[in-house]
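in:
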């Protein structure tokens, strides 16, 4: 048996214990929902989760970790993958799924689960980024991604590139993306730098771009 078969076999063994009481010695809770899990599985994925199982953490003594995030985190711990299910609350596939993958990347960063963070960013890159072009979708995704920038580096880069490539600011100088840039300085600077590098033959500066945004903001307030 080669290493690929061995790895696949171990993954199958992990997945067989998902939602199983057999050997379960810990509980993850999300609202009223509870999942019986295994300390060893948590420790394999994350030093933060390992500390929740052992030591002086309240969760260690109570044997319960309260997570107000997604069931998909628990699924990933056992299957090394997760799937997105279209939400009735957000029927727009690209906005809903894109937000979901960004949330998963942020959760992974919070608990130092590097594999999940890489997977979430990759899913965003493959399933969302190529299809998101309009101002109304780019703005909320970028706003969410820039809230925790260290968790969403690839998603942020792809969103900024899409804004530049699709001339979002030129077509919508008072639109949602421009408004989001005013609210988040790091987002504004990243877009400005991307714009500047995309047109090297001009003397366009970051200061000029920011002045243009300020002028558009002033015009919006006047009207």
């Amino acid at each position: 048996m080669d290493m690929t078969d061995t790895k696949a076999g171990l993954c199958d063994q992990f997945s067989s214990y998902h939602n199983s009481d057999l050997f379960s010695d810990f509980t993850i809770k999300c609202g009223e929902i509870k999942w019986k899990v295994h300390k060893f599985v948590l420790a394999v994925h994350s030093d933060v989760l390992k500390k929740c199982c052992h030591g002086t953490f309240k969760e260690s003594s109570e044997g319960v970790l309260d997570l107000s995030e997604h069931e998909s985190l628990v699924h990933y711990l056992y299957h090394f993958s997760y799937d997105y299910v279209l939400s009735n609350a957000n029927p727009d596939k690209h906005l809903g799924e894109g937000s979901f993958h960004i949330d998963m990347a942020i959760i992974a960063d919070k608990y130092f689960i590097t594999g999940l963070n890489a997977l979430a960013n990759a899913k965003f890159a493959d399933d969302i980024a190529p299809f998101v072009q309009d101002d109304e979708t780019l703005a909320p995704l970028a706003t969410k991604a820039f809230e925790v920038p260290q968790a969403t580096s690839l998603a942020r880069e792809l969103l900024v590139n899409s804004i530049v490539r699709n001339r979002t600011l030129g077509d919508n100088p008072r639109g949602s993306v421009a408004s989001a840039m005013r609210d988040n300085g790091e987002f504004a600077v990243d877009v400005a730098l991307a714009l500047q590098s995309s047109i090297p033959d001009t003397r366009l500066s970051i200061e000029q771009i920011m002045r243009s945004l300020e002028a558009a903001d002033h015009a919006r307030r006047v009207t």
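note: The chain has 13 helices and three strands.
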